[in-house]
Phosphocarrier protein HPr
Amino acid sequence: MEKIIKILNQTGIHARPASLLVKAATPFSSEVTIEFKGNVFNAKSIMNILSASLQKDDVIKIIARGSDEKEAVEALVALVESKFGE
């Protein structure tokens, strides 16, 4: 399952939002990735997420493959839509 979404928070994905993203993705057994500008980043790796250098208004694709893929995508989309609580 996959969903395209825009980064909404003013500061983009820096250390705190990246850690929240990884924390949200890790419990799922599905492989969870983020695609941005043709590159694929492991959503369960803080270093991978930070290396994406995601900024406000960047459009990403959240992708999950596995038994709980729907729940994984929904959880990460909800987190992004909440602006990571900022």
Notes: The two ends are 27 Å apart (CA to CA). The chain has a mean pLDDT of 97.
